[in-house]
Task: inverse folding
């Protein structure tokens, strides 16, 4: 699958096609609609729009095919340079190694400003997802300085989980699997016993109805014999 600025081509095209028929809808409404359609968060769709805007300017054939030749306009996007990106990721990893969550580290770096925090978060997650070599370089660099960040485990959302947290989650999952297995075993044992009882009652009923030495069937049921049969 071809990628465009870190996003799947089909996602970029999907948003482009929705934008072509947006009419007078505000962008936020389009982002929300595409988020529901694609299962993506609204912030992710916004970032996808920025990638699409870049493509609409740099790729005339794409713009002509999917956007009727009209490039998308966006407010000025302040890009991170490589040094700023590296510094941001380094600070987040250091904070995480000291016990902070990624979110709290980002809010601290953004000094509580929501827009700046979102920008930092998007850059961090994009680096984790699309630039693992950079993350590895930074981890090795910090390790040489005595910062033990290589023991962190990255999940698919870009959050960093410490070894202790990872072990706790693993133990909880193992415990859940064990409880499910025990419950399943007990249910199987109950069903086996139930089937055996039903088979015995079936043999009894068969002998009553068709056996040579059986009493009169009508008399049997009149005496309430059917109450001994398992339902």
Result:
């Amino acid at each position: 699958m071809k990628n465009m600025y870190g996003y799947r081509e089909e996602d970029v095209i999907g948003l482009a096609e929705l934008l072509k028929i947006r009419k007078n809808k505000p962008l936020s409404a389009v982002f929300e609609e595409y988020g529901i359609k694609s299962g993506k968060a609204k912030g992710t769709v916004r970032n996808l729009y920025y990638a699409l805007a870049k493509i609409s300017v740099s790729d005339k054939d794409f713009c002509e095919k999917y956007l009727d030749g009209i490039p998308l306009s966006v407010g000025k996007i302040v890009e991170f340079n490589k040094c700023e990106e590296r510094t941001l990721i380094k600070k987040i990893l250091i904070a995480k190694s000291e016990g902070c969550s990624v979110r709290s580290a980002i809010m601290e770096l953004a000094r509580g400003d929501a827009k700046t925090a979102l920008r930092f978060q998007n850059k961090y997650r994009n680096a984790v997802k699309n630039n693992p070599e950079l993350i590895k370089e930074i981890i090795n660099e910090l390790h040489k300085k005595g910062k033990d960040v290589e023991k962190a485990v990255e999940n698919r959302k870009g959050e960093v989980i410490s070894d202790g947290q990872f072990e706790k989650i693993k133990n909880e999952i193992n415990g859940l699997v064990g409880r499910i297995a025990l419950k399943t075993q007990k249910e199987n044992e109950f069903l086996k016993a139930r089937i055996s009882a039903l088979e015995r009652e079936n043999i009894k009923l068969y002998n009553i109805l068709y056996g040579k030495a059986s009493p009169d069937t009508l008399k049997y049921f009149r005496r309430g014999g059917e109450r001994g049969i398992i339902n």
